[in-house]
Amino acid sequence: MHRIFAVPYIRLLVCCWCFGVAIQISGCSDRPRLNPLDPQNPSTLGKPTGLSAISVRDTVMLQWDRLEVRDLQGFRIHRRVMGQSRFSPIALTAPTANSFREFGVNYGLQHVYRITAVAAAFESSFSDSAMITPGPTFSWVADVSAGDLVQLSHDGSHEISRSTVFGRPLRLKVDARRGSVWVIDRFGGDFGRLNMSGKRFNTDKRIYGPAGLAIDHADGSVWVADTLTFGLMKFDSTGTLIHANESFKKLAAFAVHPATSELWALDRATTSVLIFSRLGELRRISNVALQRPFDLAIDARTGKVWIADGNRILRLDERGEAETLVTPPLRRAYRVAADEATGGCWLIDYSTAIRNSNVIKIQANGAIAFTISGFDIPERLAVNPFDGSCLVADYGNGRIVRLSADGRDLSSYDRLAAPVDVDTAP
């Protein structure tokens, strides 16, 4: 139980910035509402304010507004983990602290935190709660209008960092093994990478018609498709160009097969699936005739290739042969992402009407598991390999939406202007 005593007897140190001096108030009898721990203070309501949480893998980091109160003993951290019925105190910070880290937390469970200010014979009311679900992954988002690259925590709802080293980021891919985020910029064709400390490394090529970006995680090499100038290019992990072929300027999308390091690509010019060797040589062409190819994704566990093709969704085996699926008719299969946990996929069924596009989860046999509606110009998908959830870059609504694997839980991060790409990595 939290005992609350007469707050005016706590000595406070209030900073008056307009005069640049510190005024010590003892008792606050003349202006009691200056006391931040006064329950009738209109700004604080007598409790610590500004509590927020982020997580990086198994570490949760809390932060709150600084409170300068004489005789304060510290801030008590209270936590409730999913499945628990009540909060438990877990730590008491130093009186000058406004942050706290908890290490070794459990993945995949929602953690709820709140804090109290503790003084001699006094403990404040609880702060507002901060909730987060830690996990082993993180995501990066390209916000083309704001010019930001935003790193989000595992649950896709909390911002870890924000970078403006690229002016209008359009495409991105994360190479978690080497701590890099590869980016193509919309204006000027800038192409380079960002490390996790925010430092940018440029290449000597500009990509004026970016159509695709893929990473071979075996060696960190990067494939880029330029529809205007250079065609299909491959760079090593440092950004040095090692291959270019100007014959392929109509590639709609591509991905690196994790088992073979082959590049599977959709060619709009021939409406076919092209398979390139890791050296960039065209090795074979699938005999599947496409209609209007938009996107493809490769399931790292099964090696199957999903293709968003006009008003249908296709799946090819490792030889490039089409498999028979019971697939529904679609308005426009626009983007697709493989769901390794189930052998199915997530896809965007695009509509030009405002807030009328759908995100659909497809089962391994091609049938619909469920449909989530209300998206406005959804641009990209990223499936979390840890829990099977899916992040949607909802461009028109200025948000990242996280859909749980069963479609029942939805959350969003909306401090964005126009997200055009998202990628999730361990």
What CATH calls the topology of the largest domain is Neuraminidase
- Can you give the mean pLDDT? 91
CATH top level of the largest domain is Mainly Beta
**Amino-to-carboxy terminus distance:** 41 Å
Compute the number of strand runs. 37
Largest sheet: 5 strands, antiparallel
Basic shape: elongated
Q: What is the helical fraction, as a range of percent?
A: under 10%
The CATH superfamily of the largest domain bears the name TolB, C-terminal domain
**Beta-strand content bin:** over 45%
Overall structural domain count: 2
- What gyration radius follows from the Cα positions, in whole Å? 26 Å
- The second-level CATH architecture of the largest domain is 6 Propeller
Q: Would you mind describing this structure in some detail?
A:
- The chain has strands at residues 11-16, 21-26, 52-56, 59-63, 72-81, 88-92, 99-103, 111-119, 122-123, 130-132, 138-143, 148-152, 159-163, 169-175, 180-185, 191-195, 200-202, 210-216, 221-226, 231-235, 241-245, 251-256, 263-267, 272-276, 282-285, 293-298, 305-309, 312-316, 333-339, 344-349, 357-362, 368-375, 378-383, 390-394, 399-403, 410-413, 419-425.
- By secondary structure, it is mostly beta strands.
- The chain has two domains: 7-132, Immunoglobulin-like; 138-425, TolB, C-terminal domain (Neuraminidase, 6 Propeller).
- Strands 5, 6, 8, 9 and 10 form a five-stranded antiparallel beta sheet that branches.
- A hairpin with a 5-residue loop joins strand 20 (231-235) and strand 21.
- Mean pLDDT is 91; it is low at 1-30.
